[in-house]
Amino acid sequence: MRKWQYVPLAGAAAVMLLATACGAQNTQANGTNLVQPAAGTAAATAPSVVASTAGTTTQAETAGELAVKADAKLGSIVTDSAGRTLYRFDKDTPSPSASNCNGDCAVTWPPVPANDATASASLNPDLVGSVTRADGTKQLTLDGWPMYRFAKDTAPGDTNGQGVGGTWFASAPDGKKAGVSRPELGVLNSPTLGKVLQDKNGKTIYLFTKDTPWPMKTACDATCLQKWTPVAPVDVAAAVKSAGISPTALFTFNNPNGVKQEAFNCWPGYTFKGDTEAGQTNGQGVGGVWFAITQKITVDKGKTKPAATGTAGSSTSTTTTATSSASTSSSGTGGY
């Protein structure tokens, strides 16, 4: 449905060049067959049926409202409405979505039906989707990753499938692996905004169009900072590898509060306190002046904002020039 080297000396040189370019002062299971009625039939909305190896049939558990649970060891994980942990499989693909767990695998790891799945307030509904399996049934996906339950999880909250075979992991709220360290800079493949940048906690990174990229000045004052947090500096080499962006797109500067902050094509980066879980994009378009930062960044001394201009659930990601009237408008609350 939807997907992502660096020479240290070259990267270091690039950062030094950006110090001048940005105009700032320093750098820095077996026989299983899932069957659903054909669309348009009277039973089209009935639950999926699982045919077991013994020939008996049972109804597959539907997902219901997906929720986010705080696990003491794994952090935030996604569960179904019954509290069962949902998992992702490294041998699947998210872009395009494809499930590679069939036969014996699907007995141990039952695919989660997509027919009635909805997102709770803790999840970004844009990331909830489906993929058609080899048998024609619809399986739930989260940011493109097919979702499964684990047969050995017998009670709500069980996470016995975590790390099995080195390829099975509980799903984080953005479809990534829970309980696994994230890179300092990552990418969320949003269906509505395109590929946008995330910090080490999976929080979406935004820019503020009232800032000035050349020379660099931040317009996010004390009131603004109550809702928006400056992005901490990232390791350039690691960021280039994990996020697939040019090293020259990154620059660290000192903001007026004396805090080192990461910038992207000279635009300071922030996270939004209204995004409480990984994968949320609640800051997009706030006040008409806050926009998620795209992975595809044009390096031109800040002339082009690396901004996703889509509205969640309605559009796609693009870049806009510094003179774009759509992205420079503000609300009566100062865009905070």
Largest sheet, strands/sense/barrel: 3 strands, antiparallel
Could you name the ranges where pLDDT drops below 50 across 5 or more consecutive residues? 1-20, 24-59, 313-332
Q: Strand order, biggest sheet? A: 1-2-3
Shape designation: elongated
Which band does the percent of strand residues land in? 25-35%
Work out the helix count: 4
Total strand segments: 26
Rg value: 22 Å
Helix content: under 10%
Q: What string gives the helices and strands in order?
A: HEEEEEEEEHEEEEEEEEEEEHEEEEEEEH
How many structural domains?
2
Distance between the termini: 34 Å
Structural class: mainly beta
The pLDDT mean sits at 82
